[in-house]
Amino acid sequence: MMEQAAVTRQTFDDVMVPNYSPATMIPIRGLGSRVWDQIGNEYIDFTGGIAVNGLGHAHPELVRVIQAQSEKIWHVGNGYTNEPVLRLARGLTQATFAEKAFFCNSGLEANEAALKLARRYATDHAIARNGVQKSEIIAFYNSFHGRSLFTVSVGGQAKYTEGFGPLPQDIKHLHYNNLAAVAASISEKTCAVIVEPVQGEGGVMPADPLFLKGLRQLCDKSGALLIFDEVQTGMGRTGFLYAYMHYGVVPDILTTAKALGNGFPIGGLLTTSKIAASFSPGTHGCTYGGNFLAATVAGRVLELINTKDILDGVKARHERFITGLEAINARHGVFAKFRGMGLLLGAVLNPAFSGKAKDIVDAAQNVGLMLLVAGPDVIRFAPPLNIPEVDIDEGLALFERVVNTVSLSNKVC
């Protein structure tokens, strides 16, 4: 066997398409909420793989089940079904409003499927609406639903669509949490309203409860489907299995991914039997969706996360984070406010520190802490749901070191 050449961060620039700009360090091992890089540096992980690793790195039970399944069978194609995916679908439908499930590989694919299903459903039921062309999708500025041409067009951030035109049509963007704007715009032409219960990439912005309740009422009145994009908020992230449960607003379609596989790629769509009927054989598909390995991991993730201990633990850890962040801010005054739900939190920078979110993330890496941004002015925290309290406290101590440096630097300037 030939010896493999060493790889470094420079290797990325040499061989990879430059659509990412990754960190200088290369992680090679993780355990729980800790990560180690190529040269042995240790980090506390407050990113959770961008809200993916809900149970942390190398969870022993997930390692066990994927090893066991890998020795049996991996893939047969969707001309057949398999036991793990049927157990997963049954588990999700029993735990949620849904009656039917569809599986794919990512949140992007789940949202693509949801939007296609909404338009197909509208087409199937056109006669009941006197033949009105019902294809319009209402979405919201600063939302994020994926990077396909369709989903990136639905997402309300122009920077992600520049240079990719012509874009899919019949998509209308309105301001998040502005119910009056939706009431003025929704009509018989609207087939769906898609919304994140908490905008993740858009700055960790929770929805106003009255906004979501109002969307439900407006969709019912106009015959539009209400789609909740819970790719980032799902699987316990907010302290509930899905965020719709916190708000008490039931969508028609829910999309899920990220933490569903704890790092193994899987996405899903949940809906009712009536709506699901519009995806008759041949209308939609996914080669790898719901394969043996992904479904096995996701099934065990669901069992582990959907427990009182984990979900209540998320709420308790939320309070620990907020208390710690507020104490840091009382000493340094860098942040205007903290927002979010559960363990999806955003620290919003004061105007005096505008645009410095990425600088803080980069500086944190240098002291052994992994952080995220949510735009240029928001630091995002999305650690494992089961992160030990000692790691929260140690990570916040490292965070304060960075915040202190930024604060002092700003004063000198």
Characteristic terms for this protein:
about 425 residues; alpha/beta; Aspartate Aminotransferase, domain 1; Aspartate Aminotransferase, domain 2; seven-stranded mixed sheet; 17 strands; about 15% strand; EC 2.6.1.11; Acetylornithine aminotransferase; arginine biosynthesis; Aminotrans_3
Describe the secondary-structure layout:
Elements: H1 9-15, E1 27-31, E2 34-37, E3 42-45, H2 48-51, H3 60-70, H4 83-95, E4 100-104, H5 107-124, E5 136-140, H6 149-154, E6 171-174, H7 179-185, E7 190-195, E8 198-199, E9 205-206, H8 209-222, E10 225-229, H9 243-247, E11 253-256, E12 267-271, H10 273-276, H11 292-305, H12 308-332, E13 335-341, E14 344-349, H13 357-366, E15 369-370, E16 372-373, E17 378-381, H14 389-412
Helix pairs in contact: 3-11, 4-11, 12-14
Question: How is this structure best described in words?
Answer:
- The protein is 39% helix and 17% strand.
- With 413 residues, it is of the alpha/beta class.
- The chain folds into 2 domains: 9-58 and 308-412, Aspartate Aminotransferase, domain 1 (Alpha-Beta Complex); 73-305, Type I PLP-dependent aspartate aminotransferase-like (Major domain) (Aspartate Aminotransferase, domain 2), CATH 3.40.640.
- Helix 3 packs antiparallel against helix 11.
- The longest helix has 25 residues, at 308-332.
- The termini are far apart.
- N(2)-acetyl-L-ornithine binds at residue 147.
- Its EC number is 2.6.1.11.
- It comes from Candidatus Pandoraea novymonadis.
- This is Acetylornithine aminotransferase.
- Its main location: cytoplasm.
